[in-house]
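Backbones bend. To wit:
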Amino acid sequence: MAFTNPADVALLAHRFQPIILNTATAEELLVSRLQSYEPSIRANMETHEELGNVDPVGYTSDAPEFSVTLEENVHSSNLDLLLAGKDVQTITAWNLADYINNGVITTYLLERTNAPVTTIAGELEFTNCVVSDIVWSWRVQQAITAQYTLLGRFGNRYKAANVIHTWQAPNTSAPGGIKAKDARLFLGGATATDRVYRLQAFTLRASFRAQQVPEIGSRNLAGTVTNVPQVRLDVEFAAADPQPDSTFFSTGATKSDYANPTLLTGSAIRVYDPNAAEGATVLRAWSLENLIVGDANPVRAQVRNMATKRYSLVVPKVTTAGSAGVRLFVGDIV
C-alpha cells in the first residue's frame, strides 16, 4: 500500500492498552501500571553475493522470531499469577518453576487514535509465547519494577475493523507504584535480625534460557522450549562497616575469607503496603531458599562519590522440589 499523511501528528503511550491471555487457563488480564511494551521481530534476513559480481544477487530469510518485553510498576501479583498459570483471584503461593509453559501466553496491544471519542486504530497480537526472562528491580528513590521478556511464535497486526478487543476502563484502585523504601531484603533468614541495611539497589533475575526451534520444511517456528531457570540476586550496598562480608563469607576471629563463601538459607524479599504503617503489611514476598556469592566487588571507592559494595548471589540448589529455588507469595511468606 502507498504511504499517506496520518490524521494524527503522533500517538503518546496512553493511546495503547496492553492485554495478556493465558490460553491454558482462559484467564485474560488488562495489564495495569505498565510502563513500556516493546515487541521485536527478527526476520534473520540474509543477503547473497557471488564471485565476480560487485552487486548483491538476492535475499532470503528464516522463520521470523518474535519477542515482547514488558515493564510494570510492581503493585500487585496479578500479572505474575497469570504468566505462571495460576488463578488470579484465589492463588496466594506459587513457584518460579510455574512460569515454564508450552507456549500458552498471548499478548495484545490495542491502539486508539487521538480522537475525543474512543476510535480504535488497530491491535497487535503475539501468540504461543513463553516466559524467557524476568527481572524484578529495586532502586533507592525509585518505583519497584518488573520486566518480563516473552518469546512468541506468531505475530500479527489487525486492522481497525478486525480487532479482537474493545477499549476497557483502567484500574483506578491499585497503587500507581511502590517506591523501594517500602521493600526490605532479608539474607540468611527471614526475620527482623536478618534484615539488610544501607541497600542502594538489588535485582532478582530469572533466566529461563528459552530457545526458539525452527525446522526444515516450515516457514514458521516449530515452537519455543524453556530450560531450568538460572536465578541471580545482584545487591549493592553503601559501604558503612564490615557487613555484609561477615555474613557472605566464612568469618573467624581475625578475618573474612573471600575464598570460602557461606551458603545462605531461607532469605526473603518483602514489599509492604505503602498506605499502612511502615513495615506492617506485606503485599507480596519472595522466598529465596538458598543463595551463595558468585561474584563480588567488596568495595568501590572513588573520589567525590559514596563508596559502595556489590555482590552477585546465585541460587545453587533448592529446598522445595519443583520450586526452582524461589517461591512467591501474595502477602507474607507462609
Q: What stands out?
A: The chain has a mean pLDDT of 95. The CA atoms of residues 90 and 307 lie 45 Å apart. DSSP finds two helices and 22 strands in the chain. The first strand starts at residue 16 and ends at 22.
